[in-house]
From TrEMBL:
This is Glyoxylate/hydroxypyruvate reductase HPR3. One of its GO terms (cellular component) is cytosol. Residues 79-350 form the D-isomer specific 2-hydroxyacid dehydrogenase catalytic domain. It comes from Acorus calamus (Sweet flag). Residues 142-319 form the D-isomer specific 2-hydroxyacid dehydrogenase NAD-binding domain.
Length: 353
């Protein structure tokens, strides 16, 4: 890309205007730390960031990052921090192209888009969204579960289609839903989000069990080290663990078979935690009772086979999306960046192991 094609507002170029006031503003701008901004455009966040930092960002979300890094005004050695989202990979080529990179702050709770091994090797510290999204995602998970059990979205479609009142005259009665209270719920992952989900479902009278890498100290819920055993003893399986090489397709054929035909899968973690093809097959053949899915393996695509299933509720990866959570996230990201440039510990550091 020729440098002249990059919109000028992304850079703080020296002004030809000799106005002392303008020159003073330019000098003040140069004093601000420089961050590489690699996420979708978000004017409110960018405006707030610009009060404290110089922002360097590609002219378009589709601009190849290596190409941009080789053409922008600043030397790569001047970039010490990245602010990114979960949709843009921060991989080894990007990390190695920035010789003085020392901090990556992501606006997501998940970390599967960051090469943590390379960060560890290079001594790059990483911060994520921490528990900012936990409450909103937990609310959403419970909402999906109630929707699937009580058929709320399906009943909405039933009324809007004009079928209500035509029962017995060529129209079937709307099927009954199922009660939430008393259900045995297995949580795959009991971190910040899983714990908030458990708290809410316990209030509904559900019986909570969980699977994780190890037993959580001070937790009274039943612990299952084997996920198939958890599935076989659950009416509902809620997937809330991080996506790693070890957890990819953790919900597989064996787990789904252990669940049984009346059970429900809720996924608010990452799409690749579930073997999507196997899930579709089980739903198509009636081997499980339903699903509530906010995430998918190949976003923004979802399996078309699910579109006509009345026992499935689909959502466009929106569990985190509330104005309140975004506001808190922006403040956290800025605080993490300020802490880094001040030589202070990050607020939400991540272990790169």
């Amino acid at each position: 890309m020729h440098r002249s094609k990059i919109p000028h507002q992304y850079f703080h170029l020296p002004s030809r205007n000799n106005n002392p006031e303008k020159m003073g503003e330019a000098k003040e701008e140069e004093k601000k730390p420089l961050i590489l901004y690699l996420r979708q455009p978000h004017p409110p966040l960018e405006q707030t960031l610009s009060l404290k930092f110089q922002i360097l960002k590609p002219p378009s979300p589709t601009t190849p990052i290596p190409q941009f890094l080789s053409t922008h005004q600043y030397p790569s050695s001047s970039i010490r921090a990245i602010l990114c989202s979960g949709y843009i990979p921060i991989d080894a080529p990007i990390i190695t192209s920035l010789p003085n990179l020392a901090c990556v702050v992501t606006t997501s709770a998940g970390l599967n888009h960051i090469d943590l091994a390379e960060c560890r090797r290079r001594g790059v510290v990483v911060a994520n969204a921490g528990g900012v999204f936990s409450v909103d995602v937990a609310d959403y998970a419970v909402g999906l579960l109630i929707d699937v059990l009580r058929r709320i979205s399906a009943s909405n479609r039933y009324v809007r289609s004009g079928r209500w009142g035509r029962e017995g005259r060529g129209e079937e009665y709307f099927p009954l839903g199922s009660k939430l209270g008393g259900k045995k719920v297995g949580l795959v992952g009991l971190g910040n989000i899983g714990s908030e989900i458990a708290k809410r479902l316990e209030a509904f009278g559900c019986i909570i069990s969980y699977n994780s890498r190890r037993r959580k100290p001070g937790v009274s819920y039943s612990y299952y080290p084997n996920i198939c055993d958890l599935a076989s003893d659950s009416d509902v399986l809620v997937v809330a663990c991080p996506l790693t090489d070890e957890t990819r397709h953790i919900i597989n054929k064996d787990v789904l078979s252990a669940l049984g035909k009346n059970s429900i899968v809720i996924n608010i973690g990452r799409g690749a935690l579930v073997d999507e093809k196997e899930l579709v097959r089980c739903l198509t053949q009636g081997e499980i009772g339903g699903a509530g899915l906010d995430v998918f393996e190949n976003e923004p695509s979802a399996p078309k086979e699910l579109f006509l299933m009345e026992n499935v509720v689909l959502s466009p990866h929106h569990a985190v999306c509330t104005p309140e959570s975004f506001r808190d996230l922006f403040y956290l990201c800025i605080a993490n960046l300020e802490a880094f440039f001040a030589g202070q510990p990050l607020l939400t550091p991540v272990k790169c192991d």
